[in-house]
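hi! just following up on the protien thing from before. the input was this:
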Amino acid sequence: MEEECLPDKIRKTYIPSFDEIREAIFKIYKERVTLPKRVKKRTIKYLIKADKINDFVSSKLSSRFKAIREGEINGFYSEVIKLAGLGELTSYIKELNDGIWLTRILWRKYRSKIKNSLSDRDARILLREYVGRVLSVFRRRKSRLDALREAMQILSRTPCIKDDVYTVVIAGMPQAGKSTFVNRISTAKSKVSPFPFTTKDIVLGHAEVNGIRMQVIDTPGILDRPFDELNPIERKAYMAIKYLAHHVLFLIDPSENSYYSIESQLRLLSNIVSSFNEEDITIIINKVDAVSNERLKVVKELISKAHSKIPVYEVSALYGIGIDKVLMYLASKFEQGFKPYHY
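and the predicted 3d structure came back as:
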């Protein structure tokens, strides 16, 4: 059976808030326990309530925290969380699991006390004290619970990317036609707009060429500037390239009236090449239907001077020109072999 990816698993794992935990525990605390008449020691009802509270914490809550195993939230997913300013998610899960361990110690301690109590009043006071201390454990970890809940909401909206499927990341500056290209070659439905930065998150699609299944990722546009000056939207694109890409298609807009000059686009490409394997990058000159042969020749010469070893393909994503050649090329790259990435 195919293992679930992290976002799919998270979508099935609900983490309650502190208020919800408190409400569930109070419900157990307040519910009526009816004992058979033959039971002489009536304080046993407080033992039953303590056991039910421990079962709720140790089984139901613990299983939810352990549903996300340590080591799963790293690489790309870890960077997504850090980008949202939420820190290390696995440390939150560890703190919450430590809290559950503390409640087990409290349960054993108070269970013994309640069992040996001499009166109904004493047992009731001990149970109330036990409930208060259990709630205190989670109250002290409320900020971690809130952060974990927020992080899991973010991850649940992240595309389900398989680490053993050949992944092609589409990169480039805003308005290079990335979304149109991705929509043309895959099942993705990226929003296309005449305005820059329309794509604000990564978008996943799938393509199949000669029986080879590929993941195709549309990324937000990146500007030609140092990494520490990039905004969170641009950094998502870099993260996709760094952690997810087996191959990068870098799209260039050759138009003389393009939003960004050829020189800027090539500088951005150089930045990407410096942090990625050059042999796993291909340049796609898009919008060839909208430029003259003379202009195309100039652009190709500039590309050759800057990156002579990188293959170049000419396409029109809008009209489907040259797309089949690119797909066949990607299939050939797959057949040369690739290593599944590991988060």
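The CA atoms of residues 22 and 135 lie 7 Å apart.
Confidence is low (pLDDT under 50) at residues 193-198.
cheers
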